Amino acid sequence: MNFELSPADDDYAVAANLARFYIYDMAEHLGWHFPPDGLFDSADRFANYWGKPGPNAWPPEWRGHPFLIRVDGHPAGFALIKQIGGATFDMGEFFVGRQHRRRSLGRSAAIALFEKFRGDWEVREIPANVPAQAFWRRIIGDYTRGAFTESREIFPAYGNREFIVQRFRS
What we know:
Elements: E1 3-7, H1 12-30, E2 63-71, E3 74-85, E4 88-96, H2 105-116, E5 120-125, H3 130-144, E6 149-155, E7 161-169
Parallel strand pairs: 4-5
Antiparallel strand pairs: 1-2, 2-3, 3-4, 5-7, 6-7
């Protein structure tokens, strides 16, 4: 397996196509139904990561850093990082296709990003997404040797949604 993590500056369409599967996975935890046409669509939900206008405008100081994860040259997932201030980063969206899970691909991508973007990090999960919480606790715990905090918080920037959030320094 040849793993590659690369900036996705010119790969918006590829990431938007992969986002359909990400949204499908998230629907299980958010209780979403299929739309009338039966096709999940990101509807430019992630456009801000590419500096494009999206349905939810970001504060002007936020910056997006989109990445594609590839296996043997084929798209396998994505990581969308928000720089929410100076050297503070947010793992906004992270997806690895089901056929590539449990092969250390997500771990490799996450650690590469933590190393690339040195500073303060926050990683959020929906409270119902217990598998994501276990994944991030394990990856962050190993990466930081347990030097992270975890809390349950309401985030006004995300429509007052509640999240489990881990914070650490890379």
